[in-house]
Amino acid sequence: MLQQMRDNAQSWVAKVIVGVIVLIFALTGWESISRFGSNEQTAAEVNDTEITRIELEQAVALQRRQLVQQLQQLNDNFDPNMIDDALLRQSVLDGLIERAVLVDGAQEFDLHISEAMIDQLILSTPDFQVDGQFDANRFDIVIRNMGLGSRMAFRNLVRQELLLAQLRNAFEATAFATQAERLQLARLEEQTRDFAVIELPIQRDEVNVSEEEIESYYTANADQFMTEEQVVLEVVELSRDDFFDQVEVDEQALQALYEREIGNLTEQRRASHILIEVTDDVTEEQALEQVRAARERLEEGEEFAQVVEDVSDDIGTVASAGDLGYTVRGSFDPAFDEALFALEEGEVSDPVRTSFGYHLIKLTDVSAPELPSLESMRESLVEELKAEQVERRYVEASRELANLAYESPDLIEPARALDLEIQSIGPVGREGGEGLAANPRVMAAAFDEEVLQDGLNSQLLELDADTSVVIRVKEHMRAKQRPLDEVSADIADTLRFQKAVEQTREQASELVEALETDSTEPRQLAEELDGSWERHEAINRSNNELPQPLLRNVFAMPRPPEDRPAYAHVRQPDGSQWIVELRGVATPESLQAAAESDLYKRFIAGQTGEQDFTALQESLKERADIERF
Question: CA 293, 295, 296 angle in degrees (round to 5)?
Answer without folding.
Answer: 65
